[in-house]
From TrEMBL:
Enzyme Commission number(s) of this protein: 1.-.-.-
Keyword flag Oxidoreductase: yes
Cofactor(s) recorded in Swiss-Prot or TrEMBL: FAD
Name of this protein: NAD(P)/FAD-dependent oxidoreductase
UniProt KW keywords: Oxidoreductase
Limits of the Amine oxidase domain: 17-447
Example GO molecular function: oxidoreductase activity
Superkingdom of source: Bacteria
Family: Belongs to the flavin monoamine oxidase family.
Keyword Oxidoreductase: yes
Coiled coil: none
């Protein structure tokens, strides 16, 4: 069919939460939009599917109890949430294989707990000095951005287990990169994005609740309300721009607009050809943000068998294939579900195995926490974001060592009529759906001000 040609105030590229919230707010302010999405679905890194009789959330799913922007959006859309199951004991498997059940503090030596507190206090103190919207403006930004997070921990403590636990929370738990590849400044941003280390790592806060119907349904509802402004299967190939207009050329659709919002993760910016090319500093800066890698592994069982054993389904073991695990049962299902994470090199090792060996290795790891019943799930899914052309990793992107202080200052600035919006370049809520909501709100406000000034 003939390509569609449209004139709109704003063209939004990408129908993840960041792009959709931007579009929603612009429409509310009386402006016209078109949203161009590469995939045949909306939601980006949030996605759910029914597979082998179980409901799986493949991407982002949890709502932290302090994520106010996301919570306000959920209320606005009339979406309900349900709490994560967390009654009973958690499991910690130590490096020597010793399996310990616990509640509250980690079952490690009290001296190690004290070391953990000391390291966390040091990180919290640094994060408290940071303007979360401008990490590069910290007076010691350059210096802190030149120190590997792993070296910094080693310089502060001789307690190997304490270091490993703190390292794990930021590296494996959040950035999904090894801690020698990112800086103290990047770790500080991660902490400051949730205000405190506690908010970031306490699973009672961070993994508080899920959305009834799945997190993707938030994007689906916004897209449904935007109606025929959303185009699926429309990857934007070229973005021509001048001082006060853009033309976005997607497969099957061309949109002429006053402004563009590139609402894709930074590592994908260069999938679009800009005409003229973006300024040199951007072209350089955009090469220094990269995606982490994690496999979200989920196994559904006829019943949540761990609960009758007095277990919450929560477990940690930084040396295991699956380094953290949680109960991920949906309240509308009889089956119980476990979700676990396999991070960075471990994820690469797993993808290198034949599928059956990979499944066995991951289920054996679940069994290390919860016993042999974990070996025989009724449904099983590994989320493979690394091979998704329009994402290319998980959970999100971060700067390489030294990048945040050097190039971060350009990431939120428009280039002429082109704005950038993603959870990966947002301060509060960085790398989370909440961050996508926040940057969507903020980007729409910035553009609406300029549209009003034009009029
Ligand atoms: P996102 O990547 O979602 O959207 C970008 C969109 O642009 C995509 O739809 C893509 O297809 C499209 N696109 C790309 N290039 C294009 C082009 N050239 N033309 C047109 N369209 C293009 N967060 C959280 O709060 N709680 C959680 O529990 C988790 N857990 C989690 C698990 C896993 C496995 C992942 C992968 C991620 C999470 N996250 C999370 C992170 C969270 O999902 C993420 O931060 C946001 O969904 C990102 O939303 P954005 O809209 O910024 O990008």
């Amino acid at each position: 069919s003939a390509p569609v040609e449209l004139d709109r105030d704003v063209v939004v590229i990408g129908a993840g939460i960041s792009g959709l919230v931007t579009a929603r707010r612009l429409v509310e302010a009386g402006h016209t939009v078109a949203v161009l999405e590469a995939r045949d679905r909306v939601g980006g890194r949030t996605w759910s599917q029914e597979i082998d009789g179980s409901f799986f959330e493949i991407g982002g799913q949890w709502v932290s109890s302090d994520q106010d922007a996301l919570k306000a959006l959920l209320a606005e859309l009339g979406k309900e949430t349900f709490p994560r199951y967390r009654d009973g004991n958690s499991v910690y498997v130590a490096r020597d294989g010793d399996r310990r059940e616990f509640r509250g503090a980690f079952p490690v030596a009290s001296s190690t707990l004290e070391e953990i507190d000391r390291l966390v206090a040091a990180l919290d103190a640094l994060a408290a000095e940071m303007d979360v919207d401008a990490p590069w403006a910290h007076p010691r930004a350059g210096e802190l951005d030149s120190i590997q997070f792993s070296s910094w921990l080693a310089s502060l403590s001789d307690d190997e287990e304490a270091r490993r636990i703190v390292d794990h929370y930021i590296a494996a738990g959040m950035l999904t990169k090894r801690s020698h590849t990112f800086s103290v400044l990047q770790a500080m941003l991660m902490v400051a994005s949730a205000e405190t280390f506690e908010n970031l790592i306490d699973e009672g806060i961070l993994l508080d609740a899920r959305v009834v119907g799945g997190m993707q349904s938030v994007s689906e509802q916004i897209a449904a309300e935007l109606g025929d402004a959303v185009f699926l299967g429309a990857p934007v190939r070229r973005l021509s721009w001048g001082p006060s207009s853009v033309v976005a050329l997607a497969d099957g659709v061309t949109v002429r607009a006053r402004f563009a919002v590139v609402a894709v993760p930074p590592p994908l910016y260069s999938r679009i050809s800009y005409e003229p090319a973006l300024p040199r500093l951007r072209q350089i800066a955009h090469q220094h943000q990269s995606m982490g890698l994690v496999i979200k592994a989920q196994a559904a069982y006829d019943r949540p068998f761990w609960r009758s054993a007095g277990l919450s389904g929560t477990g940690f073991a930084s040396h295991e294939v699956v380094c953290e695990v949680y109960d991920n049962t949906s309240p509308h299902e009889e089956r119980g579900m476990l979700v676990g994470f396999v991070v960075s090199e471990r994820a690469e090792e797993m993808w290198a195995l034949p599928a059956e060996d990979r499944k066995r290795a991951i289920l054996e790891s679940f069994a290390a926490y919860f016993g042999p019943e974990a070996l025989a799930p009724a449904a099983f899914l590994l989320a493979d974001w690394g091979s998704e052309e329009w994402t290319r990793g998980a959970y999100a992107s971060s700067y390489e060592l030294g990048g945040l202080s050097r190039w971060g200052h350009v990431q939120n600035e428009p280039v002429g009529p082109i704005y950038f919006a993603s959870s990966d370049i947002q301060g509060a809520g960085y790398m989370h759906v909440d961050g996508g909501v926040r940057i969507g709100d903020a980007t729409a406000t910035r553009i609406a001000e300029r549209l009003t000034a034009d009029a």
